[in-house]
Specification:
alpha/beta, 6-stranded antiparallel β-sheet, 5-stranded parallel β-sheet, 7 helices, 18% helix
Length: 328
C-alpha cells in the first residue's frame, strides 16, 4: 500500500555528510536518541520535506545502506545545476547536525523473490538503490552481477565501498573515458535473456530508456525488466487530448487542454489544490475519483491502486475517459 500523504513525517538528524565523487554527496540520517528507524527492503526510497526559495518541496531519494539497518538511513544526492530545487536544497541545507523531516520508506522497485540470477545495471548515481539490492542478494546467497557505468573515475561514487564489499568480485565498472574493452555495451551485456534472470536498471532517464529498449529488442520478456524512475511525466505526450474535469464539491466544470496539467487547470479556475512535488511522487494532491477513468502517470500509487481507478494525482495524471469527476 502507498504511504498516506497525511502520515506524520519522521524528524531525523543529519549525522554525517561525505563527498563521494564530483558533485555527489552522501547523507547519513539518524533517529532521535533511543529510537530506531522503520525497517526497509532493498530498492526502497524515502521522501524528504525541503524548502527552496520559500516554497515547500518533497523529493524522493533511494536508500543505499544495507536493508535491515534501523540505526541509520543513507542517501546520496547529485548536485544538479538545472534542478527544480530539490538538489540545491539538499546540498545547501543538509549539514551535520541539522534536522530534516522524511516519510517512512516506500518501495516501488522490489527485488523478485527467488530469481535465478539478477543483473543490476546502474548509470551514475543510479547505483544507489542497486547497492542495497546487492547487499540483500549477497545476504540471501543469490546470484547477481552489478554493472556500474560512469563518465570517469572522478565521477564514480562508492569506489571504496565496492572495492571492499564481500561481493566485490561481482562488480563490473564501466568508464566512458576508459579503454575500449571495459566500456558498457548493451548488446554484449543483454545478449542472452534467460528464464529466471531479472534485469534492474536505474540511472538517468536516457540511460534507462536505451538499456530497456535494447533489452526488449534482444528478447527480454517484460516481466523480467525492472526500473526505477522518480517523477511522473508532466510533459505533454503525443496523443494527449483535452478532457472535461468536474470538481464535485466545488461545483466547477473545466476543460484540461492537451498541453496543460489538471493541477494547473484547477489553479487557473481559482480552486485551491494542495501540491508539493508536482511530479506524482509525494501524494499531496491525491484526490478521490467519483466517475470516469484516470490515466495514471504517477509514481505514488501502487499498480493495484492504479488499477482500482478510484484515486487521481492531478499534478501529472490525465483521463482516459472524456469526463473525469473528482472529489474536490
Amino acid at each position: 500500500m502507498s504511504t498516506p500523504a497525511n502520515e506524520a513525517p519522521l524528524a531525523l538528524t543529519v549525522a554525517a555528510r561525505q563527498t563521494l565523487a564530483e558533485g555527489i554527496d552522501l547523507f547519513e540520517l539518524h533517529p532521535p536518541p533511543g529510537q530506531v528507524l522503520p525497517p526497509f527492503t532493498a530498492g526502497a526510497h524515502i521522501e524528504l520535506q525541503l524548502q527552496h526559495e520559500g516554497r515547500p518541496l518533497v523529493r524522493p531519494y533511494s536508500l543505499c545502506n544495507a536493508p535491515g539497518e534501523t540505526h541509520r538511513w543513507q542517501i546520496t544526492v547529485l548536485r544538479v545545476p538545472a534542478s527544480r530545487g530539490g538538489s540545491a536544497a539538499v546540498h545547501a541545507q543538509l549539514q551535520p547536525g541539522s534536522r530534516v523531516h522524511t516519510s517512512r520508506p516506500r518501495n516501488l522497485f522490489e527485488l523478485v523473490p527467488g530469481a535465478r540470477h539478477s543483473v543490476l545495471l546502474a548509470g551514475g548515481i543510479g547505483i544507489t538503490p542497486l547497492l542495497a539490492m546487492a547487499e540483500a542478494l549477497h545476504a540471501a546467497g543469490a546470484g547477481f552481477r552489478l554493472h556500474h557505468a560512469t563518465r570517469s573515475l572522478a565521477r564514480t561514487p562508492f569506489i571504496e565501498r565496492l572495492d571492499q564489499a564481500p561481493w566485490r568480485d561481482r562488480v563490473v565498472r564501466h568508464l566512458d573515458d576508459g579503454d575500449e574493452a571495459q566500456r558498457l555495451e548493451f548488446d554484449r551485456l543483454l545478449a542472452r535473456p534467460e528464464p529466471g534472470t531479472h534485469l534492474y536498471v536505474c540511472g538517468p532517464q536516457g540511460f534507462m530508456d536505451a538499456a530497456l529498449a535494447r533489452a526488449r529488442t534482444l528478447g527480454w520478456p517484460e516481466a523480467q525488466l525492472h526500473w526505477e524512475s522518480f517523477g511522473g511525466d508532466t510533459a505533454p505526450q503525443a496523443g494527449d487530448r483535452a478532457f472535461t474535469l468536474v470538481l464535485a464539491r466545488s461545483g466547477v466544470t473545466l476543460q484540461v487542454p492537451a498541453g496543460c496539467t489538471a493541477a494547473q487547470a484547477i489553479a487557473d479556475a481559482g480552486v485551491f489544490l494542495a501540491t508539493s512535488c508536482e511530479q506524482g511522487v509525494c501524494g499531496t494532491c491525491l484526490t478521490p475519483v467519483l466517475e470516469g477513468r484516470p490515466e495514471h502517470r504517477d509514481h505514488y500509487l501502487t499498480p493495484e491502486e492504479q488499477a482500482a481507478g478510484d484515486q487521481f494525482t492531478p499534478c501529472c495524471s490525465r483521463a482516459l475517459s472524456e469526463r473525469l469527476v473528482i472529489d474536490l
